[in-house]
Amino acid sequence: MRDFGDRFATLLLVLKRADKGGETVFPYLQRTITQEVGDVLLWINLDRTGKGNTNSLHGACPILEGEKIAATLWLRERGQPMMHNPDGMELFDVEALARPDVVFL
């Protein structure tokens, strides 16, 4: 995976929710997220300089009843146009990441 760089962002989609347990916990944020089927959770793993974002540390709580099925997508830094900031001061170009779509404004 080194060819693709670090995980820039993580996307977690819940396809089946556990009857009890299975939450996603972010200990540094003191947050526990309970997702419903079809919910998507997206978080950024790197800060704007390319260093690891400690707030992205997470874990899955134990499944106490039933089962949980989830799909994970890792967005990696290499080969991503938004990762090339024209001013060179930061790792990624915020404008490319969150540019408003003028068609819908």
From TrEMBL:
The keyword Metal-binding applies. Keywords: Iron, Metal-binding, Vitamin C. One of its GO terms (molecular function) is procollagen-proline 4-dioxygenase activity. InterPro entries: P4HA-like. The keyword Signal does not apply. One of its GO terms (cellular component) is endoplasmic reticulum. This is Prolyl 4-hydroxylase alpha subunit Fe(2+) 2OG dioxygenase domain-containing protein.
